[in-house]
Amino acid sequence: MYTRRTFIETAGVTMTGLAVLPFSSVKDVQAAKIKAIAFDGFAIFNPQSIFKKVKELFPGEGGQLVDIWVAKQFSYQWLRTLGGKYKNFWDISKDALLDAAKQCQVLLSEEQLNDIMNEYRQINIWNDVKPALQQLKEMDVKMCFLSNMTDEMITRGSNNANINHYFKNTLSADKVRMYKPSPVAYQMGIDYLGLKKEEILFVAFAGWDMAGAKWFGYPTYWVNRLNMPSENLDASPNGIGETLSGLAAFIKDGNR
Fold it and tell me: pTM (2 decimals)?
């Protein structure tokens, strides 16, 4: 069974790309050819170093601390969106980490808090990202981020990996002060790219994000790097793979 702990501990494993849906799912996107791709941040960025730092600082409680932290990061985003009390992803992550430390009865110093959060500033990409982005660029497909992360976090990560030249826009939840899966957040892709939703492929890292994008009306590709089971949210991706290496072929097949 894949648990939140499994997600964290396997986050850095490099896997071989694998398209596992039948081609009929690819044909579902043929009515309007894909002209652009909107990526969730973690489909591109690998968070392993962040979780590793927590475990280094707290070797006994680190695993549990990360589990609770990740859960609270997302619950805080959704609760604040529902309640109309927006805080950006950076600030929510700090709040969630402090709360997780309390729950684990871990004494988290200001220095340790900063050390952990600074790992976000050093974040880099999954190993398969650059070759996939180059393929897509050669296909003349527009690319942007559509992420709950802040613009600064995305820009830093892109600069760390030297991939910022691949992306047309950085669409952060900060622009609309609402987090995915709010339709207001997904609407940014249409507004900033100037395309129909059927022409924008959303590439999700998490199953819930894939479902939210599909509810909104985007064709979706789930880069299921951790081989997680599907969510019971009445939504299936148009395509799926364990890395981004099959994404270009998926789009070519759908655009014929």
Answer: 0.87
